[in-house]
Amino acid sequence: FRLYDTYGFPADLTNDIAREKELTIDEAGFEAAMAEQRKRAQQASQFDTDYNEQLKSDLVSEFTGYDSTIGTATVVELFKSGELVQKLNVGDEGIVVLDQTPFYAESGGQAGDVGLLETPAGNFVVKDTVKLNSAIAHKGIAKTTLKLGDVVEAKFDVDNRQSTKINHSATHLMHEALKRVLGDHVNQKGSLVTAERLRFDFSHFEAVTADEIKLVEKLVNEQIRANHSLETKLMNLDDAKAAGAMALFGEKYEEDVRVVSMGDFSLELCGGTHVSQTGDIGLFKIVSESGIASGVRRIEAVTAEHALQLTQDYSEQLIEIASLIKSEPNAICGRIQQLIEHNKATEKELDKLKQQLASNAGADLLSQVYEVNGVKVLSANLKGVEPKVLRTMVDDFKNQLGSVVVVLGLGQDNKVSLIAGVTKDLVSKVKAGELVNYIAQQVGGKGGGRPDMAQAGGNQPDNLEAALASVKPWLETKL
Predict the structure, then answer these.
(1) Beta strand residue intervals within 359-475, DSSP E
(2) pTM for this structure?
(3) For the chain, which has fewer Cβ within 10 Å, the N-terminal or C-terminal residue?
(4) Do residues 119 and 150 make contact, with C-beta atoms less than 8 angstroms apart?
(5) How many other CB atoms sit within 10 Å of the CB of residue 375?
(6) What percent of the chain shows pLDDT beyond 70?
């Protein structure tokens, strides 16, 4: 568990290594440690009480939604604010448990169904469906009074379910594609499947490259175009594993499991809902890839009309960019490269001009040099120069004047940039860091550095002139 929790090393790989050494790992102990970690994480993040998270039910609901979209059912339990109740009144938020239902309860990463529980007097709007042990719970708002024993017509949102099914089936294809592209070490670490998108977390120890993402997309879309029929079978768990069906480490399976296959490409244990043919997915497009933990990556993707909309958006943006840079879409990369090179050349030329301006400004400043007890001092408030040239200007003044204390200030955009330079023959008496910090405190900042060169900043440019005027009396106490 420490390998997984602290170092991100997947438990299934630990299991593989142990097996090679003719050892086994304590799966029950690992799962117990995971449960404790989840409990601690939940407690740490639970600032507001969600009563529904604490609910339990001893009832069993029959799921009829693999083949049916509508079903007649009886209300067998009602909850409101975490308490069992006899009825829900109009406007009440609550939970309805039915003896049987076509609504799929959130499980295995697939989001729960939404829809309506209809009665002759009105309906209950289902916003989500979850499991309470073996009971299927419909979360939502009562638009009519609902009592224990009432008979309802349960109708889930068919379009929402279809979009979710499409994303769920695409997740299976992507899982297998990732294994084939990245290696057999890839295993699911989490997933979220909704009507709008899919999210898949998996074990992998480096970022997935653009070429690898392209290949995963290619494999998935090939299987979509092949239009495989999805087959589901109830099998004994051991027989299913022996047949090569993917099982998730740490998941609890019944003795008989549901196995979903898509041609000869994908074979997984899964209790979720799926499309009839892979062609129903239409199109698969990866949106992003990122790291979420040590050894765990995350891919987000879209399918069907969402994938089509994304590609259309990309195409429109490409055309707009091409128009802005006066190029054809198929020549945009070359044109952008030309603009980058031109911009670099322009920036170099601009830097030369800025340095020349700074040099000219420096020549003018030499007339402002004064002496404090025989030591040359230059203290100046600059205008129209870049902060990054201040160090070069100080070095130039030190080279030209030989023995000198230089202080330069620049106030612009509500910011102050300060720099102080002291030639080495004077650092025993004057420290550049002390001097620049003394000035910075007067302009709302602080700073420091080496005895011969130090920089600082501030946010009160209105005080800069007075702060620079204080340099002379300060130096008089040092020299």
Answers:
(1) 370-372, 375-382, 404-412, 415-422, 446-449, 453-458
(2) 0.66
(3) C
(4) yes
(5) 19
(6) 93
